[in-house]
Design brief:
30% of the residues lie in helices and 15% in strands. The protein is built from 7 helices and 7 strands. It is globular, with a radius of gyration of 17 Å.
Length: 195
């Protein structure tokens, strides 16, 4: 077990549910509580079924903290409901990249696992293969913006950053889960200023 897990448990326990705490849709679904932990056998079965290896910090979280619930947005998706995606080629007109669902078997492109529900076509993913393995990123399936790769080196560091922001009274907007380039993207600016 990763040595950060006990510290994360303590931090999460200190954050009571308060409606609209994070200023994001869906927090009422998880109310800052985690679902039951996965067994090592459940994690192994998912890996075998999908022919992937979960990044160890993420797997440690699932088997030692909780398998669903408390996280940014609508919450951590139960592993059995997580979906694999590949990143599409860069769109020449927007410079953005979308994501396509990866159906088994696939070895084309890097794989990403949709682990947190954000709503609509927005995805919170963790890299499963390739140079972004273990890193958290947020993107839009249709490539309307992003993707944005978190500066956190792994899932546990990313999750702890979220807990620290919640404990300090900041909300999801303060997490900088979107880059300044994203906020300045011409499509976003047009959408923000449209009637």
């Amino acid at each position: 077990m990763d040595s950060r897990i006990p510290r994360l448990r303590r931090k999460l326990a200190r954050i009571p549910y308060a409606p609209n705490r994070s200023h994001s849709f869906g927090e009422e679904r998880h109310e800052f509580r985690l679902g039951p932990r996965l067994t090592k056998g459940q994690a192994d079965a998912f890996q075998a079924e999908h022919d992937v290896e979960l990044p160890q910090p993420y797997r440690d979280f699932l088997t030692n903290m909780g398998g669903s619930g408390a996280s940014p947005y609508y919450g951590l998706i139960p592993l059995e409901d997580c979906t694999l995606f590949t990143m599409n080629s860069r769109d020449a007109s927007t410079g953005s990249r979308g994501f396509s669902r990866a159906y088994r078997p696939t070895r084309r492109g890097d794989l990403f696992l949709h682990v947190i529900e954000r709503g609509c076509n927005d995805l919170v993913l963790i890299g499963i293969t390739g140079p972004l393995t273990g890193r958290m990123l947020i993107g839009n399936a249709d490539g309307f913006w992003g993707p944005n790769v978190s500066s956190a080196p792994d899932f546990l560091a990313w999750y702890e950053r979220w807990l620290d922001h919640m404990a300090a009274g900041q909300d999801n907007r303060a997490l900088a889960l979107t880059s300044s380039q994203l906020r300045a993207h011409p499509i976003r600016q047009r959408l923000a200023h449209s009637p």
